[in-house]
Hints:
Helices cover about 80% and strands about 0% of the residues. The protein has five helices and no strands.
Amino acid sequence: MIYNVVSVPSFRAKVAGLQEELNKEWIKLYQICLDRQWADPSVTPRAFALMMQSMIIGRVIDDISDTHIVLQEWIEVGLRLIDKFCFFRVYNHG
């Protein structure tokens, strides 16, 4: 799929649009956290969205791999990342 996205312009255009819609939803979520002062303001909403998208792509890569990470471990890593980004104020300001 990644090869096709790079190699086939029409496929890239379709995937890019879908990917941007996903980014917009992650950006909205992170902006809510910023507005409530839960998130680290040094991390931009778009950077957070990209991090979340990379987590999703990492899951796809794991599915392709011959050796897989245990799903529960993957979930714990994802939750830890979200926890550190979205609940920054709780940990750093009491």
